């Protein structure tokens, strides 16, 4: 049932939001020269997939978890994209093709060993990763791997269709701020 919602919402989201995607893409060309950021992430059953986002840092920025990056790495336009959560819009393509869900554990990098171990212990990789979830709306990010893995497992154990909608509406309503950036 959730896959049907994911497909429909991502399809119609891309259909109706394409003008915004286009504007952000064009501004991104002027900001970084390469507005789309594609990065290999850990997917369901720990299989790799290519996550798409709008670029918020210069092209040559080292590929590390957000909480390990420096605040100065983020461009001014990138800061706006993160605050408005517009940087996440290209992930609707990931949702449409089935690599991600709108709701699920945020996909981590393969170099986040402690988080992978903690999530593995709790069966989190049995689920498709998501754009938002219980941890995100409670502002738990990847800088606290044990707490994040516990919250992800809690969400997956209890996830109902009503929770799915609740997490989406909470995120759209501004709850949760994403991963914190090292100052």
Automatic annotation (TrEMBL):
- The residue ranges of the Bacterial sugar transferase domain are 3-172
Q: Which keywords does this chain's UniProt record carry?
A: Membrane, Transferase, Transmembrane, Transmembrane helix
User: Which EC numbers characterise this protein's activity in its record?
Assistant: 2.-.-.-
Q: Which GO terms describe its molecular function?
A: phosphotransferase activity, for other substituted phosphate groups
Residues spanning the membrane: 7-30
- Entry-linked InterPro entries: Bact_transf
Domain of life of the organism in this record? Bacteria
Q: Which Pfam families match?
A: Bac_transf (PF02397)
What PANTHER family has UniProt attached to this entry?
A: COLANIC BIOSYNTHESIS UDP-GLUCOSE LIPID CARRIER TRANSFERASE, SLL5057 PROTEIN
- Family label: Belongs to the bacterial sugar transferase family.
Annotated protein name in UniProt: Sugar transferase EpsL
Q: Which organism is it from?
A: Chryseobacterium aquaeductus
């Amino acid at each position: 049932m959730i896959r049907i919602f994911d497909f429909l919402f991502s399809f119609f989201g891309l259909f109706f939001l394409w003008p915004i995607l286009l504007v952000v893409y064009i501004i991104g060309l002027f900001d970084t020269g390469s507005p789309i950021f594609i990065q290999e992430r850990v997917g369901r059953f720990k299989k790799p997939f290519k996550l798409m986002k709008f670029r918020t840092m210069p092209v040559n920025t080292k590929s590390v978890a957000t909480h390990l990056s420096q605040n100065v790495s983020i461009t001014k336009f990138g800061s706006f994209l993160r605050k408005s959560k517009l940087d996440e819009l290209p992930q609707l393509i990931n949702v449409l093709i089935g690599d991600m869900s709108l709701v699920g554990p945020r996909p981590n990098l393969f170099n986040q060993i402690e988080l992978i171990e903690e999530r593995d212990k709790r069966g989190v990789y049995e689920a498709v990763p998501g754009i938002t979830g219980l941890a995100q709306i409670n502002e738990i990010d990847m800088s606290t791997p044990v707490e994040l893995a516990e919250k992800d497992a809690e969400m997956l154990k209890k996830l109902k269709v009503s929770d799915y909608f609740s997490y989406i509406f909470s995120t759209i309503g501004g709850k949760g701020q994403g991963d914190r950036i090292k100052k």
